[in-house]
Amino acid sequence: MNAREAKALELAARVKITFANGLWTVPSQTTSGKRYNVLPMTRFGGG
Length: 47
Known about the structure:
single chain; 47 residues; alpha+beta; 1 helix; globular
């Protein structure tokens, strides 16, 4: 496991992350109450 994967696991263990309609919703690390919709890219460049 690399550092990025470890950070993702730590974040998922302490905050609410949801998945709906093909998007992950995650909290901001710097602004309380702000959330972002995320569409991760694959390692091959596609969404």
